[in-house]
Write a structure and sequence with these properties.
By secondary structure, this protein is mostly helical. It has one domain. It has three helices and no strands. Helix 2 runs antiparallel to helix 3. The protein is extended and about 45 Å long. The termini are far apart.
Length: about 80
């Protein structure tokens, strides 16, 4: 029996759901860390540089549709409210 729906990815049994929920704190922590990295301009520039070199070494170009969102989010992160 399948544990996850092949169409939407939702868990089909209680064990699969419990497994997902048990990993949720780790996922949230990783998301928060990645968000902090992306908000830092120096880290963003490094990530763009590495993405380009990895894709070039694989002889694959980055999709033109990918660039605006990548560059916009990494080089111009939203300003954080520091008034508190």
């Amino acid at each position: 029996m399948k544990r996850f729906c092949s169409r939407c990815g939702l868990p089909l049994d209680g064990q699969a759901k419990a497994e997902i929920l048990s990993k949720e704190p780790e996922r949230k922590e990783a998301d928060a860390l990645m968000n902090r990295l992306i908000e830092d301009q120096e880290s963003g520039e490094i990530m763009i540089s590495r993405l380009v070199s990895i894709r070039q070494s694989q002889n694959q170009g980055l999709s033109p549709l990918f660039w605006p969102s990548l560059i916009g989010s990494l080089l111009n992160p939203p300003k954080q409210d520091t008034s508190s």
